[in-house]
Amino acid sequence: MAMQGLAGENARLRAMLDFRTEHGDYRLLPASLLAQDISVLYRTVILDRGKRSGFTVNMPVVNPLGLVGRVISVSPHTSQVLLITDTASAVPAVIEETQVKGIVKGTGTNVLSLEYVRTTEMVEVGNMVVTSGLEGHFPEGLRIGQISEVKREPHKIFVRITISPSVEMSKIEGVFGVGFSVEDAD
Question: What is the CATH number of domain 90-165?
Answer without folding.
Answer: 2.40.10.350
